[in-house]
Amino acid sequence: MGHVKDKDGFSSFKEFYPYYLQEHKNKVCRRLHVIGSFIVLGILGYALATGQFALLWLMPVAGYGFAWVGHFFFEKNKPATFTYPLYSFIGDWVMFKDILTRKVPW
């Protein structure tokens, strides 16, 4: 994986994703992202199944809460969400898929 960390911007998600993975080297950080993502999906499924849509506000709290704990306490870096919110959101779900399919280490 090439280092693109010093780059000012990204012209595509394909260009951004190696940077995103570089910012997630710590396994505890990656695991916290996965836990947060599963909780987000659980909240979404529960809210849709029960019609309790007011619970949807918990989704970003759970997802970003777990991820940011991983970054601040384990990865010791600033979440890419602060600089690249859309690409980071996409990156969260692509990394989640890549971890589940074992393309990225758990």
Uncertain runs are 1-6
The whole-angstrom Rg is: 14 Å
The geometry reads as globular
Distance between the termini: 17 Å
Largest sheet: none
Strand composition percent = under 5%
Order of helices and strands: HHHH
Helix/sheet category: mainly alpha
Number of helices: 4
The percentage helix is 55-70%
Q: Determine the mean pLDDT.
A: 93
The strand count comes to 0
Please provide a written account of the structure:
α1 (13-22) packs across α4 and α2 runs antiparallel to α3 (58-75). The protein has a domain at 34-100. It has 4 helices and no strands. It is globular and about 40 Å long. Helix content is 64%, strand content 0%. It starts with 12 loop residues before the first helix and ends in a 6-residue tail after the last helix. By secondary structure, it is an all-alpha fold.
What descriptive keywords fit this protein?
single chain; 106 residues; mainly alpha; 4 helices; disordered N terminus
List the helices and strands and how they pair.
Blueprint (H helix, E strand, L loop, with lengths): L12 H10 L4 H24 L7 H18 L9 H16 L6
Brief summary of the model shown:
With 106 residues, this protein is mainly α. The protein is 64% helix and 0% strand.
